[in-house]
Amino acid sequence: MMISRKLTVGSLKEKAKAMPDHSVIQKTVPSQLKRKPEKRAINKIKIIQNNKNYTVISNQKKSSLLDLALEQSQMLSYKCKKGSCGKCMVEVLSGASCLEAVTKQERETLKGNLERNYRLSCQAIVNCK
Predict the structure, then answer these.
(1) How many Cα atoms are found within 13 Å in the side-chain-facing hemisphere of 38?
(2) Which of 12, 17, 66, 79 has the highest count of CB atoms within 10 angstroms of its CB?
(3) Residue-wise over 11-24: b if at least 16 C-beta within 10 A, else e?
(4) Who's near 85: CB < 8 A, 6+ residues apart?
(5) 26-76, pLDDT tens digit by residue?
């Protein structure tokens, strides 16, 4: 024999009240587990080209200085993007440690200007971490 129970609106409400409201429950996390967002140092490369100063921010991906500058709306002059014309030549004012070693193409195109902190922005690879 099966016992059937007649449910009313009132009986459902009482059970609903007994159930916890999940929207109100807040979980507490021990302070050891809470992490503050890590602050990364912002690596800036300051350069000058045609008497205009530019600041390029390194985003930790290997890209040419020219490509990063253009992505960041820094309108550097350039032409061939191969390192042979020299139009993208910039003077590095600060942040040279974020640039990889001078390439063979830069040595051939810049010649004596390497000692004066000049680089070809199309050939200078940014690699800052």
Answers:
(1) 3
(2) 66
(3) eeeeeeeeeeeeee
(4) 79, 109
(5) 555 555 566 666 666 678 999 999 999 999 998 767 899 999 999 999 999
Q: What is the pLDDT of residue 109?
A: 94
User: Within a 10 A sphere around the Cβ of 93, how many other Cβ atoms?
Assistant: 14
Q: Which amino acid is at 88?
A: C
Question: What six digits make up the tokens of 63?
Answer: 């890209």
pTM above 0.90?
no
Dist CA 23 CA 125 (whole Å): 51
pLDDT number for residue 59: 78
Regarding the domain delimited by 44-126, which CATH topology (the fold level of the hierarchy) does it fall under?
Ubiquitin-like (UB roll) (3.10.20)
DSSP structural state of residue 19: S
Instruction: Please tell me the distance from the alpha carbon of residue 53 to that of residue 67, in angstroms, as a whole number.
Output: 17
What are the tens digits of pLDDT across the range 90-106?
Answer: 999 999 999 999 999 99
